Amino acid sequence: xxxxxxxEVSKCSKCGKCHTVCPVFLETHDESAVARGRISLAxxxxxxxxxxxxxxxxxxxxxxxxxxxxxVCPSDVDYExxxxxxxxxxxxxxxxxxxxxxxxRYILPRRILFDTLxxxxxxxxxxxxxxxxxxxxxxxxxxxxxxWIPTLAGKTALQKFRKTRKVENPRMRVGLFTGCLINxxxxxxxxxxxxxxNKMGIEVVIPQRQLCCGxxxxxxxxxxxxxxxxxxxxxxxxxxxxDAIVSACATCTKSIKNDYMHILGPSWxxxxxxxxxxxxxxxxxxxxMPGVKPIGEKVTYHDPCxxxxxxxxSEEPRNILKKSSRFVDMDMADACCGGGGIFxxxxxxxxxxxxxxxxxxxxxxxxxxxxxxxxGCVMQIADGLAGxxxxxxxxxxxxxxxxxLKNGETKK
Amino acid sequence: MVMFKRTTRxxxxxxxxxxxxxxxLGKEKVLSGIEDRLCYSYDGTKQKALPxxxxxxxxxxxxxxxxxxxxxYEIPICARGAGTGLSGGAxxxxxxIVFDLKGMNKILSICPEDFIATVEPGVVTKxxxxxxxxxxxxYPPDPSSAAxxxxxxNVAECAGGITGLKYGVTRDYILALEIxxxxxxxxxxxxxxxxxxTGYDLTRLFIGSEGTLGIFTKITVKxxxxxxxxxxxxxFFCERDNAIDAADLVIENNIVPRTLEFMDQMSISAVRxxxxxxxxxxxxxxxxxxxxxxGENIKHDLSVVESACKKKNALRVKVxxxxxxxxxxxxVRRSISPALYNIAPHKINEDVCVPRSRIKELLQKVxxxxxxxxxxxxxxxxxxxxNVHVNIMFKDEPGQExxxxxxxxxxxxxxxxxxxxxxxxxxxxxKKSQFMDLEILPKELxxxxxxxxxxxxxxxxxxxxxxxxxx
Lengths: 412, 471
What we know:
Oligomer: heterodimer
Strand order of the largest sheet of chain A: 2-1-3-4
Strand order of the largest sheet of chain B: 15-12-14-13-17-18-16
Shape of chain A: globular
Shape of chain B: globular
CATH topology of the domain at 107-225 in chain B: Uridine Diphospho-n-acetylenolpyruvylglucosamine Reductase, domain 3
Largest sheet of chain B: 7 strands, antiparallel
CATH class of the domain at 107-225 in chain B: Alpha Beta
Helix content of chain A: 40-55%
Radius of gyration of chain A: 21 Å
Strand content of chain B: 15-25%
Distance between the termini of chain A: 60 Å
Low-confidence stretches of chain A: 125-137, 143-148
Order of helices and strands of chain A: HHHHHHHHHEHHEHHEHHEHEHHEHHEHEH
Helix content of chain B: 25-40%
Number of strands of chain A: 8
Mean pLDDT of chain B: 94
Number of helices of chain B: 16
CATH architecture of the domain at 107-225 in chain B: 2-Layer Sandwich
Structural class of chain B: alpha+beta
Radius of gyration of chain B: 23 Å
């Protein structure tokens, strides 16, 4: 196992700048909840001053892994290496709770089993009263309870696009990495991606054998499962001759573009270079879109952590929205919406606080619709707005573009 | 890592203290697990020492109760804001209790008509600045850690920052304090008025006392009207002395810039290429200048500054046209500290200050002390106030640390000869306590020691800081 993290630990100058951005620290003011504190714990583990304890696990799990701290770190500490090592250490030394382990090891790698189980549980869920508001961000963690998922789509995105929609003389052929949430719940987002790209003369292939990106299992330090998923996905996407791979999920994009570089090694570089967030792809390869007629609605944008802080993508989705709607920026657009895997389950109270703040910003912006580039954020924000009985809609920026393109056709 | 072997008797005492604190404060506020203690064992100096207990007070009364217990059992107490200090102030060298004051973070009142705000010590300085700005007011002290350090820590160390030349330092903005003394009693110093000359100035005694006398629980600060506008200018020089002369000429022309920052050749070569910073090869010294005020006076001042720089052979003068350009100029300054680690992995960051007129001499002395080029020295900082950050960089090779320490010692000696001070803004802590008697003579030092003994007879407040170990 790589020991890179130990070098990263010694790079930390303990200046404290990570205090300024950490969404968890800003709520709790606990030094154990911020990168600098966890780095000092990692240091103590390295020096065998402490071992793996329940408290340590709690402190490790309280990280949202949004990577803001990494972005602002003046000493250029690669915190992701450190937190991954901590998660891995917790998993290796304390084990992974049984249920997620079963999900990661046995269910996620098997698409049909995953499909069936999700369907069964979503049906059972209908008979359980909705006591707790809130929805799960990482679908595979659904089985752990506490948070409810929204209604599953009748047909998953993979089922819906089993056959590739043909495009006459396509200028490019791209693959879509759907990710769990889009596949099972937000099939509309997948449809919007296909619609928009097809209209631009680009053929979209949705490989049927793609699996979960692996984020939920790496979140729990289950390196083995993440590696297995990464290898399967590699087989699937490498076998197709694609000009690019796009994803509409910020977290999946980070996972397959950035994390796979660590999991699969430098041989993934060629593929990684071809992976784009959908807005990034449009900005780079399409640019001007003549058929677009802006819709009348006021639309604002929420920056998903994994797109802004990991990929530095913020202008691209806004450019799309500016072309296709009456765009208004909200204050603190880059503040975390609070969603995010295991964190949402363990720190439900903090999740809600962050969400309330996000919803405040959205409402202050005066927008009719909030768009974002991550189905996890869509789910979380929609949940928050619903909790306030707000009429503001939550959507993906590609869906706004889809509407604007439709608008352009009808008004011709 | 500083570790202490404790005797069984001491362990039993600690257990008693923990139990007593748990009883009076509740378990939310008393942390004694190793994981928590580790998280409160360090500060911005990278030094570490494990506390035995971490207390997270919410109120003055929590602080008072804890101090009573600590005093009774003679347990060391170390107050901590955000733990960003650069002299070791928040490192619990002798174990004991660390007070995590981050939880006391309320702005209690802002009175725009009185130009006063009262806050708890855990308020982040930038948060205070942002909140008073909503009322058109300004809290000027601006240490580079302002976005994450706390006002309590700023007061305890008397933090400076880049606006010092025009606006002064933390000391100049503190009107009144609520302080808990080591015996748990609560005192109030100063008045919440813009002037007060009643009695001895106890407030000033506590400012910069580095947690060795008492713990601040309320801080009343003075505010001033917020300048309308800030403009930024960068001047590039091929000679260090030209930059210093230009800075002098600016001030001779009766312009007092909001900031007047300097970077020498080593600092420039460190940031070159760092985070996309581009600087031409012939640039050997740099001045970064902020002018604030109203549109009219800024325009005038900028033109004076520009011509002063040109008169002193500036290669180029760049006035920021947009906020983005302004940001780019300041990014250069901000990137120095981290970028220095590209030169060598270890850094001793000094904050000496000399009378303005003697900066050239100071830098010449520093050059002479490192004439064998055994280590790397980068100088930058608040040239307007004579406060220069002399950064000694050294490698992981045998003997390097000793050479670095020797040079630091010699620099301190020279600074004192030039009529300067060993710390302009970081405080003494344990990092510089060995140099205290270079600057403070025995008589004065003994007065300080008597004051310390008066307030803290049992010596529980931040032991190992400020005073040289011989004192």
